[in-house]
# Entry
Amino acid sequence: MAEAVSRQRWAHTSAILCVIANCHRDPKKTRPFTPADFDPHRKRKDAPRVKVGIGVLKQVFVAQSAVCSPQSAAKPSNAV
# Structure
């Protein structure tokens, strides 16, 4: 019961927020807002996750750690 009341109140509040945001947006730069953009109870569609193997992660992070190692960062390149 309490969740239904919360959903109803957020539906009302998100509609008001949508109107205010659309009044102040730049139509050339942004798309029109919808009440769903402001409703925390709405299910958002997340981007699909891509599963990769451990080899890809090693390529990304191990190769990067060799370039950005703390020992190479501590040595100045123009030492006198």
